[in-house]
Design a protein that fits this description.
The protein folds into two domains: 2-40, no CATH class; 42-105, no CATH class. The longest helix has 7 residues, at 78-84. The relative contact order is 0.19. By secondary structure, it is an alpha+beta fold. The strands form two sheets. Strands 5-4-6-7 form a four-stranded antiparallel beta sheet. Strands 2-1-3 form a three-stranded antiparallel beta sheet, with no helix packed on it. It has helices at 21-25, 78-84; strands spanning 2-5, 11-13, 35-37, 63-67, 73-76, 93-96, 102-104.
Length: 105
């Protein structure tokens, strides 16, 4: 089973780590967030966006579904999120990895 930290995005496959060493030794203890199975993680519903709503660059590495400084929401690449996004969290936005798994927000 694959696992992911909801806060920092650390992932590992428990079949490669049957006694849980990675969870204790490699996951930052200060993070304090629960590890969840990727199968149970929140996912993007519907077709994944293909390009950034601002610059039209490909979103193959992940994206942000977020409110922008201009007001409207959009699907932004990391570069446009840094420039135009207002953050992640309730009422601000979410971050998704390339597979559409929610990693923040």
């Amino acid at each position: 089973m694959k696992w992911r930290c909801e806060a920092c995005g650390v992932t590992w496959d428990s079949e490669d780590d049957p006694v849980g060493y990675l969870s204790r030794d490699e996951h930052p203890a200060h993070c304090g967030q629960p590890m969840v199975s990727v199968e149970r993680a929140k996912r993007w519903i519907g077709p994944k966006p293909k390009e950034c709503d601002v610059c039209q660059e490909s979103l193959i590495a992940g994206w942000f579904d977020c409110k922008t400084k201009m007001g409207p929401w959009g699907n932004l690449c990391p570069a446009c999120f840094e420039r135009f996004g207002v953050g992640v969290g309730d009422g601000l936005g979410q971050a998704y990895d390339a597979d559409g798994v929610k990693i923040a927000g």
